[in-house]
Design goal:
alpha/beta
């Protein structure tokens, strides 16, 4: 299956938690997709390569079932190996040009933290979307640099690309980021640590539906 370069980066952008039990990971992700997650990023910083491959392959099949793009965190080789729809690059994960040479027209996202200049450079190199954050205190990355809604407003006026917000986002504080210009909200804990994963994802999905109605 060829990945779609036209897949829209908008809505709930769910990022997987570190989970060694592949069956449990798939259970959680299925619930998030049922709740309306529009993009899934596979992120596991602790697993060995063999487990990462197994999980990425399983998630590739699950996301196809829901017609949702699968993005792989930080690993262009794994992206290509499982025919994922794209890769997400952090500040130390190599350049956009190298990823583009390997992945062709697949999606490439870039973390830009709280620096608009990084976003401009990423777009100049051919990135498809950019990510800013952390907007709130994050349990996953408590040491992350802080970003503000004003950054989103400025980015919205200067960038012609989807903008993703990340970092400590909940269904309660996410609305202000959408109002400031975010197209997607990237979430780990507020969805996957919730007692009701599907319900938590639905809360986020409703934020976007409400935005379309106003």
């Amino acid at each position: 299956m060829k990945s779609s370069p036209n897949a829209r980066i908008e809505g709930l952008y769910a990022i997987t938690p570190d989970e060694t039990d592949t069956a449990e990971l798939l259970r959680k992700v299925r619930l998030a997709l049922l709740g309306g997650a529009r993009i899934l990023q596979y992120r596991n910083k602790t697993a060995a390569a063999a487990l990462r491959l197994k999980q990425a392959e399983a998630l590739r099949e699950l996301t196809r079932e829901f017609a949702v793009p699968l993005i792989v965190n930080d690993d262009t080789a794994l992206t290509q190996q499982v025919n994922a729809d794209g890769v997400h690059l952090g500040g130390e994960d190599g350049g956009v040009a190298d990823a583009r040479a390997l992945l062709g027209n697949r999606l490439i996202g870039v973390s830009c933290y709280n620096r608009l200049a990084l976003a401009h450079e990423a777009m100049r190199q051919g990135a498809d979307y950019v990510v800013f954050g952390s907007f709130f205190v994050s349990t996953v990355k408590p040491e992350a640099v802080a970003a503000t809604p004003d950054l989103l407003r400025q980015a919205r006026t200067e960038l012609n690309a989807p903008i993703v917000a990340i970092g400590g986002i909940t269904a309660q504080n996410g609305a202000q980021l959408l109002e400031a210009g975010a197209d997607a909200l990237a979430v780990i804990s507020a969805v996957f640590s919730a007692p009701d994963i599907e319900g938590a994802a639905r809360e986020f999905s409703n934020l976007f539906e409400q935005g379309k109605l106003t």
